[in-house]
Amino acid sequence: MAATDLRGWLKEVGEMGELQVIENVDWNLELGAIAELNLRRQERPALYFKKIKDYPDEYGVVAGSLTNTSRFAHVYNLPRVKTWREMLEIVRVKYGVWQSALDQFPPEEVKDGPILQNIQKGDDVDILKFPTPLWHELDGGRYIGTGCAEITRDRETKEINLGCHRVMIHDKKTVGFHMTPGRHCRVHIDKDQARGERSPIAISIGQHPLIFAAAGSEVPHEPRSEYHFIGAVRQERVKVIREELTGLPIPADAEIVIAGWVPLNKTRKEGPFGEFTGYYSSEDEVDQPIIEIERVYYRDNPIILGAPPNRPPDEYSKMMDIIRSAKLYNDLESAGVPEVKGVWVSDVGRQLLITVAIKQRHAGHARQAALAACPGYTMGRYVIVVDEDIDPTDSDDVLWAMCTRTDPVRDIDIIREMRSIPLDPIVRKPTESYMTSRAIINACKPYEWKERFPKAIKMSKELEEQIRTKWGKTLNI
């Protein structure tokens, strides 16, 4: 049986030969810098930091949990493949399977679990006890929540939601967080505030990477919770404990969970923080909601799961955008767009750049696909449609098609006044209106004369196989 907790997952990844243990590291910038430089390595192992300066030797921080196809497949219980395009084809099929199985795997409430090994209450609450890194040089504080899962409830519908948003330490009993307007967690809190009620909240700081991945991705769940989705992926119900103050379901085998309340009309300056766009794209310091912590639960020798954003492509981009790509792929087919051959939410441009590959069947087919893809994300910028001979996951391939198959005056359309978010670097702050435009680019061969379009240089499959058979070992191809 596969592990359901972080330390069990670390053992499995170690056995796979994809874990590097690093000791005697400083939490102040050094740990974050190593995590960032690790993303530039070809092998990109998961990193497990121990013996962190100023903390007990066995307290740990993990980073880089989902930076390659092998560990992504391991977490999502999928077959191993070599490329992200192959992985995308698997995920988009599995996505529908998981969605259809949600009701079979509701969370299982239990009375006890490793998370209850230690409990801080009242004056004993002190989250400075845990080795929280200062991830980037310009960050406004230490962020304990990067690979986390925030748990909230809609008081009206009773819906439980798991989200992933940045969490900064203010002091030993207070954290601040940045939740994008319109996200489920933020909606739950805003509704409570409008009724004049404080909001219950729990945050899992260390847990199996699948819980973090589900919290940070658009996964099928409504009106259920991400716990149902995680159970469908594992084919096993997630064990949760009802937290005694808030009543929220927390992972029974998490490493660290904080629980408390988002008070009415109380904010503190939060940020800046290096975000997933690769910029400090929100205002430097902005009043944001806080959490007044009343309980801290943690295992013996707890481990924080870190996933600090960096200039993409980073850990976030691979983990989140392949799920987004699979969902959008299926959404386009459900919307009636014919002959979709591939979809990719860029791991460099993130949700700012979406590429759709189609086999053109009629005039206007490319624009149909582009318009159908436009509503996909709140921070879109470019939608590029390419022919089926172009690999949408290969930026060089996409750029070649865009440079050689488009006439800018004819093939680029602009849609104005589209919704964006505070983290969008192109939106000038301060503002009350987060809006930008979107460009849709038809990078397909002109439909009217596509059969007469110049032929591309291409090796036949027969010749390629012949050369690989004869010269493969010599040339390592």
Description:
The protein is α+β, with helices and mostly antiparallel strands and 477 residues long. The chain has helices at 6-15, 30-38, 69-75, 84-100, 184-194, 209-216, 226-234, 315-334, 365-373, 395-405, 408-411, 461-475, and strands spanning 19-25, 46-52, 60-63, 108-109, 118-121, 143-145, 149-153, 160-163, 167-171, 174-177, 199-206, 239-242, 249-251, 256-262, 267-270, 286-298, 303-305, 340-345, 353-358, 382-387, 412-419, 435-442. The strands form 4 sheets. Strands 5, 6, 7, 8, 9, 10, 11, 14, 15 and 16 form a 10-stranded antiparallel sheet that branches. A hairpin with a 7-residue loop joins strand 18 (340-345) and strand 19. It is globular, with a radius of gyration of 23 Å.
Total helices: the number is: 12
Beginning-to-end CA distance, first to last residue: 37 Å
Q: Whole-number average pLDDT?
A: 92
CATH class of the largest domain: Mainly Beta
> Measured on Cα atoms, how large is the radius of gyration?
23 Å
Strand fraction equals 25-35%
Per the CATH scheme, the topology name of the largest domain is Pnp Oxidase, Chain A
Which CATH-level-2 architecture of the largest domain? Roll
Number of strands: 22
Name of the CATH homologous superfamily of the largest domain: Electron Transport, Fmn-binding Protein, Chain A
What's the number of structural domains? 2
Overall 3D shape:
globular
Please describe the biggest sheet, giving its number of strands, its sense, and whether it closes into a barrel. 10 strands, antiparallel
Give the helix/strand class.
alpha+beta
Residue windows where pLDDT falls under 50 for at least 5 positions: none
The percent of residues in helical segments reads: 25-40%
